[in-house]
Amino acid sequence: MCGTNYVYKEDRMIMKKSILIASIGVFLSLISIGQSHLANLNETPGKNFKSMIGLWEIVGEQDSKGALEIIDSATILIRFMGEEKKLLNYKIDFSKSPFWFDFSTRDTVSTQSFKCLIDFVNEDMLKWEVFDGERSEHFTASTGDLFYLKRVRSKSNKFVSSN
Questions:
Q1: Is residue 141 part of a domain?
Q2: pLDDT tens, 113-136?
């Protein structure tokens, strides 16, 4: 009897270990699925670099005739007050809301860096604020220049970079 009791205890111990290992595997799988799902929730549909590709013209500022043209990840052009430039480098942080958009351009004498906020108003309209100094975390219109850019449906190359 004693030997049989020992076998049952050993079998139960093996079964408990198997259940524990299986439970840990299921638990880790659920955590992985949950994190993947949260990552997908953070990626707002339509709010990524690809959705920004195109020609965007400033609206409301008739004299500026400004535009931002995002051709691809290597070529972004900007036109403002009669000048047109190719961005030397840029960074868009889509994890922020509104997005942080930093870039630099070169004029005849120096390189200028800009800190901006940019966000979609809708599929065809961007809100863009360029700050004179430090960037605010939210649109302010008091410490920077605030613009609205409307997507131009014909995504032709209307201007060519001078730099």
A1: yes
A2: 999 999 999 989 999 999 878 898
